[in-house]
Amino acid sequence: MSQKSAYVTLNLRKGATEEEIKQSYLSLVKRYDPERHTERFMVIQKAFERLSSPEKRAQEDILAFNPAKGQFQFLDEEKEALPDEEIAKRLEAAEAFCAAPNGSEEAVAEASKSLMLASAHHIRRKQYQKAIEYWERILRIDPSHPRAKNNLIFAYCSLAFSYAEHELTQEAINLWIRASEMNPDDGATLHNLALACENEGRAEEAQRYWNETLRRWRADLERNPDDEYLKNCILEVHRHHGGKLLDTAGREGREAGAEAKQQAVKSYEEILKINPDDFEANYQVAASHMENRRWNEAVEQLKAMMRKFPKNVEVLNLLGWAMLNSGQIDPAFMVWRQSATIDPKNPSTKDNMVRAHLQLGKKCREQGQFNTALKHFKSLLRILGPRNPEVHFEIGSTYYMKGDRRAAYLSFQDVLKLDPKNQNAKRLLAELRMR
After folding, report:
1. Which positions ≥6 away from 53 have C-beta within 8 Å?
2. For residue 395, what is the DSSP state?
3. Is the pLDDT of residue 97 over 70?
4. Are residues 180 and 241 in the same domain?
5. How many CB atoms lie within 10 A of CB 185?
6. Are 204 and 112 found together in one domain?
7. Could you tell me if 146 and 223 lie in one domain?
8. Is the pLDDT of residue 261 over 90?
9. Is the overall model pTM greater than 0.70, yes or no?
10. Most CB atoms within 10 A, among 203, 259, 367, 392?
11. pLDDT at residue 122, as a whole number
12. Residues 243 and 187 placed together within one structural domain of the fold
């Protein structure tokens, strides 16, 4: 990230919340008052203004690398601190299994546990490269191991970001490519690759990654058309590249991308002819059905995967969306609840349910199905808790459109109890009082 970056000025990383930006600004202003440190204060003020405006923040963000999101995940028994001798003994047995696996589920589980124990041991000592080696070995014997996959992607992205910050761009590119191969739909990694390849003068690769990044941003914008920040990011990329890249992504980029995706799916299907249980090939075929809006095919593919990988949360969460888009609303939420039972701490499952209830609630409200909309919004309160002003506002707005003035009035009052500065709730309450 450039030393002139607004994030660097405010001692923040990209992705900081509005509250974090505000607190950092106030802290720096206390240290550099405008009378004694006029120039420094002006730099701080300008940085704050850039990050407080969706338009200016988009200008900043399209040229800034995305830090790794998430954290290392271990079960309690995998975090157990054992003596070096015990670790070595377990590793010896795991190494023997990896050299000549016997295929039994118990042996795979035991070898994976030993390797996870060893990786946690090295993470505590900040020996990331050694931990990476162990996670790679786990995935060779158990391709669907969720924590090894999560930890490996997180390690790749964390190290890549660190390399990029220290201008070791080629090393960063190599790691982000590995992460992207494991999680090809992660837009943040593709964005990082677009920036890094551009910085290295690798124009053709940079354009390909920018096209992929823009395609994902546009798809996100279709789902959330009111997202001004995302809209500005797309426009800023347009300005940054003089309009050429955006046109390519809109025409040739889409066609070339579709053709490349088609070829990739054919390759995965060939793999499945040889090994029907290949996790990655199954998942990519299902993801392709999702991208092409073939919801029923996606449901069938993912159901087949669930029979082979019944406790894989990643598959369950994607199945939920496939079902939802195919009109199977109640089964979709049943699948997500099953996912939450398997891994209660997985944030993606909760996020999926929240987004689904919110989207369905708004859609039902637009169609005049107010009772169904209220059911979805009230479900959000059970997930997010009763003290969420945004959800109470959606409930109030639904009652308002339904014509239930008393219920709307009470809901907007609930909003102001939780968020006294909410201008929309104040305005609608004033309208209700005047009627």
Report:
1. none
2. H
3. no
4. yes
5. 14
6. yes
7. yes
8. no
9. no
10. 392
11. 87
12. yes
Q: Residue 392 gets which letter from DSSP?
A: H
Residue 102 forms part of a structural domain: yes
Q: Which long-range contacts (CB under 8 A, 24 or more apart) does 96-104 make?
A: 97/141, 98/137, 98/140, 98/141, 101/141
pLDDT at 41 over 80: yes
CB contact at 8 A, 73 and 150: yes
Sequential DSSP letters for 76-111: GGGS----HHHHHHHHHHHHHHHHS----HHHHHHH
Distance of alpha carbon 355 from alpha carbon 199, whole angstroms: 36
* pLDDT category of residue 99 using cuts at 50, 70 and 90: low
pLDDT at position 136 is 92
Span 101-130, pLDDT tens digits: 566 677 778 888 888 988 998 898 888 998
CA distance 59 to 339: 38
Residues 297, 418, single domain; the answer is: no
**Is residue 152 domain-resident?**
yes
Residue 242 — very low, low, confident or very high, per pLDDT cuts 50/70/90?
Answer: low
* Best CA proximity match to 407, nearest among 384, 377, 387, 383: 377
Place of tokens 């029923």: 296
In contact, 261 and 216? CB cutoff 8 Å: no
- Would the CA dihedral through 319, 324, 328, 334 be positive or negative? positive
> At 21, which CATH number?
1.10.287.110
Transcribe 219-235 into DSSP letters.
HHHHH-TT-HHHHHHHH
Q: 239 burial class (0-12, 13-18, 19+ CB within 10 angstroms)? A: exposed
Residue that is last in its domain, among 250, 265, 289:
250
Quote the domain boundaries for residue 223.
Answer: 76-250
Residue 71 lies in a domain: no
Residue 289: CB partners within 8 Å, gap ≥ 6? 295, 297, 298, 301, 322
Reply yes or no on whether the pLDDT at 33 is more than 50: yes
Tens of pLDDT, residue by residue over 337-380, are 999 999 988 888 999 999 999 999 999 999 999 999 999 999 99
Give me the CATH number covering residue 303: 1.25.40.10
HSE value, Cβ hemisphere, 13 Å, CA-based, for 128: 12
Q: How many domains does the chain have?
A: 4
Instruction: Please indicate, yes or no, whether residues 219 and 333 belong to a single structural domain of this protein.
Output: no
pLDDT at residue 35 in the model: 79
CA 192 to chain CA mean position, Å: 14
pLDDT band at 236 (very low <50, low <70, confident <90, very high): confident
The CA-CA-CA angle for residues 182, 335, 184, to 5°, reads 15
Same domain, yes or no: 272 and 417: no
pLDDT single digits (tens) 142-168: 888 999 999 999 999 999 999 998 999
